[in-house]
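Work Package 3 (structural annotation) set out to generate three-dimensional models for the target panel prioritized at the project kickoff. During this period the team completed the workflow that converts sequence records into discrete structure tokens, so that structures can be stored uniformly alongside our sequence database. As a representative example, we reproduce one entry of 186 residues exactly as it appears in the project archive.
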Amino acid sequence: MNLLREYIRQILLEKASFKLKGDSEFFRVELSGVGYAQGGQQLRFKECQTDVDALMQTPEYLAAKEKFEANNTTKDMVEDPASPHGFRMQERPAKFRPRFYEVNNAWISDPEDRGKGHGKEIYKAFIDQAVEYSKSYGGVFVGAHACTMGGGAGGFSGGTSEAAQRVWKSLGRDYNSSGMVIFIGL
């Protein structure tokens, strides 16, 4: 029975149509008739900094950083007494600064659809979109709402429900992750 259920779920997901609303600052991915995940860009994950630090030591992060810095430059003004204006533009390697995206809300509309893997697929669609928005930055961290809002109460870890925490744990098996934070090098 479980194999049949898994097969049916795969067929439904293959035919699933995700809709995107918003832009690179804040967006929502919706799985028609099932649910959504939404969130936006953050400056950092204050409450999950130890997870970010751990991910910054991984081979995937280090390779993405090396690749980005080897292939990207930026220009800065530097003093140059020989220049008529006393300054000139100088090219230097760009600093690697991956983007941070937080999933701040996710929902499966029908309770009958919960616990069937739809949430994980919706989160993956959110992660894929965050990757798309982050291509020119060389990498992206995607984290739970708890990473930006601090401690919570009532069975919630900083606004991340127990069901969402289970999804993050499951996603951690598919991505380079630490806690409720994922890093993807681009």
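Residues 118-134 form the longest helix (17 residues).
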